[in-house]
């Protein structure tokens, strides 16, 4: 193996091109320049910044203007560029630029989750063909090392579950709603004002960003190619202050979770179409989690990822999930590793998708549910509601009933039976009440059928929200 | 680079020797055998178990007896062994066996913290010379990926601090003492009975195990060779139930911490003998930490490591720090990576010690202290004690005084002044009282001088304990 050492010679620099000079790119450029001596020692050869591709080159960005260019394609194609850092974001032109770099055998470090969630296969094939490196630690959970642990540290284990809070904007909003009791729209406005939400917050609040990260995490955890289209997705825009209030009453808070789960082939399924193979469920939605769950205390713009593996047990990784400097830290770790490979030979592990596990549809995925209803405040309502749950095979764990005006709690069949003495034809005594039902595990489809049936009941005014419950022992 | 791919051909197996078949070795052997198909896909070639070195080969260990050998040296030397997994522990013969494997160009995966803490330099030199790999994720914090994140993920950042709970035995004992109020010896006996402490618990309870891990973490974090002898070490055997009680009264708990810290060169020191270089402080001791600190909720046999880096900010890694299966998970991740390198070419990052930062002596390291005293229960005591602290330049943060019988709390100089009305010659009214002083930051040497002076005071019966306080914002 010694013949492949020192491809470049100890004084031959590794040429680096940076594409994009937003929050992350600015920090990457700063670190390359300020930490040059340390980086040289860690790589074995100097990193030399060849250029930075920007949209407008005539803006003062605090670096030598000769380094700036608007022609990203020409920069990537330069003979003296060995390594390309893509921190511009978006699908185009990032996809073509990364493809061109990899095809030319140049190493690529990217933080682009949206691109990876849809095009890892294409990019990994280009990297494989030319024996180039594709690194992307910064694409998931910012500074938190989670991509490398999944690819490398857990490569000798069997991952069963990855659950993460991987979007800082939504976590900031939900933490603030929980703390202040304010409603969603007011809290979003505040997050925008503070710079925690973008002017168009759709990608964050509707869960697209988290879904892209879930696709990447699931691909790595299960050695299966998972794209954003495979991820079931719900955002947080329908979460109300009432949801957080009823969650609190149950000792829970609400978090937007990215869940990647191995669904073991049941013992009765070996003859099924899937041939007894495990399936995987990948989903993003807001869910109640108990306050004693380790993810419940991850607040504000922080991220955390819990990994459960057969031998390792439960691991948790916690830190800053976004921001220029934290994301640049993850990018630079990849840059040093990619540059070392250029210098010493060796390669990043390529895409591993041999397992090809099928995706379990969301309708098959059992979770627990927290169902919030407005109901007529009269006797017999609880019986009628309980009957619909039972009819659809959804088992109820707890019920909480409040009179809208008085806040009286009526629980269990005894109280309902007592009221029934007034007779079935009794008229409503108040305008309405709230009924909160928490179920045991049920499939999405069974729950959807139950909710549809509940809406038909004369005594149910409306089903105001259905939010899942995760992280309980059951 | 393509010429160095596929050294072995896709059907040529990677031969593996396992040294030791205790808790970890048994799990490693099980995983290699049970997960053969997955491992083959992840490596690119099959892993073939060539043999397992044990002390006694005539014991049924549930595997093919032909695999067992008592001649570890012959096993390592076999031509068909490409990769050696050392999970026997101890310095000898592990040191010679690993040395022989590396010298022969074989990759080594080890979980041996005691060996690494003293001999990484020697082993890394052997690996470097023959271009072999030396991996050791399992040596620190069991299943928790922390070695690889420090070496790779944070290679483009500047680590300022690593603080960890890295010994499960002591954490189990301290957690149990905190919960039950039992004393140290009773709790140690219970831990031994439950299998959380070894028959001779010295390495754990006196902090030797944690110190070895601290040396490894500090070496990686600061790119400086740090050995166990460089680590200041105190164990938990002097921690009393009274310490935990007074800690609780301050909103704290007690944890055995491994602390690796960059001590920046002060602005006034550029002309000093150190030439203005940063220094590093590496130390292991029990310390009070506030209950709101993320490490305070790490209980029982769990481990956690907090890393603070300039750009990444604060990261935390949490999981199972010991046990057969969790440690084997970390070993197997390294095995897959080392085997991939054998197959595809490429090498693990070697030792990085270019920074050569000097070790700051413990006497120079400022921390806060929690000082517990038995004092005469009479007026003027607080003044005398406060005077000694002031005389040695140690600033007091809070004082808590309790009459031994009544539990009366007397705080601050006003209360003392009030009692002083009785005059300086007043006789003791009760047999004794307890005084707890928490200081601001002070050096070890200033504190030691203060404690010596306190012991000379007529009104101080004894200084019953001095425990550091870490993790406060100040």
Question: Would you kindly provide a brief summary of this structure?
Answer:
Chain A has 474 residues and is of the alpha/beta class. Chain A is 35% helix and 24% strand. The first copy, chain A, has helices at 23-34, 36-43, 72-77, 94-103, 113-130, 147-153, 168-180, 184-193, 202-205, 208-222, 241-249, 324-344, 381-391, 412-420, 444-456; strands at residues 14-19, 47-53, 68-69, 83-86, 107-110, 134-135, 159-165, 232-233, 252-263, 279-290, 302-309, 313-320, 366-377, 396-403, 430-439, 442-443, 460-469.
Can you characterise this structure?
Chains A, B: One of its GO terms (biological process) is threonine biosynthetic process. Chains A, B: The active site is at residue 213. Chains A, B: Pathway: Amino-acid biosynthesis; L-threonine biosynthesis; L-threonine from L-aspartate: step 3/5; Amino-acid biosynthesis; L-methionine biosynthesis via de novo pathway; L-homoserine from L-aspartate: step 3/3. The structure is a homodimer of 474-residue chains. By secondary structure, chain A is α/β, with parallel strands linked by helices. In chain A, 35% of the residues lie in helices and 24% in strands. Chain A has 15 helices and 17 strands. In chain A, strands 7, 8, 9, 10, 11, 12, 13, 14, 15, 16 and 17 form an eleven-stranded mixed beta sheet that branches. In chain A, helix 4 packs parallel to helix 5 and helix 7 (168-180) packs across helix 8 (184-193). The longest helix of chain A has 21 residues, at 324-344. The radius of gyration of chain A is 26 Å and the shape is elongated.
């Amino acid at each position: 193996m010694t013949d492949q050492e020192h491809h470049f010679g100890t004084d031959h620099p590794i040429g680096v091109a940076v594409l994009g000079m937003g929050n992350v790119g600015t920090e990457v450029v700063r670190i390359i320049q300020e930490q040059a001596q340390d980086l040289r020692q860690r790589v074995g050869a100097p990193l030399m910044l060849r250029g930075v591709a920007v949209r407008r080159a005539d803006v003062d960005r605090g670096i030598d203007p000769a380094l700036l260019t608007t022609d990203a394609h020409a920069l990537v194609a330069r003979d003296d560029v060995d390594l390309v850092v893509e921190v511009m974001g978006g699908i185009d032109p990032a996809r073509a630029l990364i493809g061109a770099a990899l095809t030319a055998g140049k190493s690529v470090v990217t933080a682009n989750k949206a691109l990876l969630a849809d095009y890892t296969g294409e990019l990994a094939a280009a990297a494989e063909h030319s024996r180039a490196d594709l690194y992307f630690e910064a694409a998931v959970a910012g500074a938190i090392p989670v991509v490398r642990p999944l690819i490398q540290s857990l490569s000798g284990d069997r991952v069963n579950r990855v659950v993460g809070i991987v979007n800082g904007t939504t976590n900031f909003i939900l933490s603030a709603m929980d703390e202040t009791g304010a409603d969603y729209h007011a809290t979003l406005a505040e997050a925008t004002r503070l710079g925690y939400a973008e002017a168009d917050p759709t990608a964050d609040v509707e869960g697209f960003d988290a879904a892209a990260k879930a696709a990447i995490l699931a691909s790595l955890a299960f050695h299966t190619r998972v794209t954003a289209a495979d991820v079931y997705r719900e955002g947080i825009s329908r979460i109300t202050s009432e949801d957080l209030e009823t969650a609190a009453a149950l000792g829970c808070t609400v978090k937007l979770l990215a869940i990647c789960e191995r669904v073991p082939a049941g013992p009765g399924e070996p003859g099924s179409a899937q041939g007894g193979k495990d399936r995987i469920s990948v989903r993003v939605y807001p869910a109640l989690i108990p306050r004693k769950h380790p993810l419940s205390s991850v607040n504000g713009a922080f991220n955390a990822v819990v990994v459960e593996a057969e031998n390792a047990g439960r691991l948790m990784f916690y830190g800053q999930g976004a921001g220029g400097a934290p994301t640049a830290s993850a990018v630079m770790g990849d840059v040093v590793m990619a540059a070392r490979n250029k210098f010493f030979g060796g390669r990043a592990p390529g895409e591993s998708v041999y397992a090809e596990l099928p995706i379990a549809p969301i309708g098959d995925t059992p979770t627990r549910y927290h169902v919030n209803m407005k109901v007529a405040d009269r006797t017999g309502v609880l019986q009628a509601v309980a009957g619909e749950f039972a009819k659809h095979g959804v088992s109820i764990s707890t019920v909480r009933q409040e009179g809208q005006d008085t806040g009286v709690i009526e629980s269990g069949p005894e109280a309902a039976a007592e009221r029934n003495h007034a007779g079935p034809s009794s008229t409503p005594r108040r305008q309405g009440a709230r009924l909160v039902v928490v179920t045991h595990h049920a499939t999405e489809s069974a729950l959807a059928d139950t909710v549809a049936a509940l809406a038909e009941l004369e005594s149910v005014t409306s089903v105001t929200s259905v939010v899942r419950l995760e992280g309980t022992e059951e």
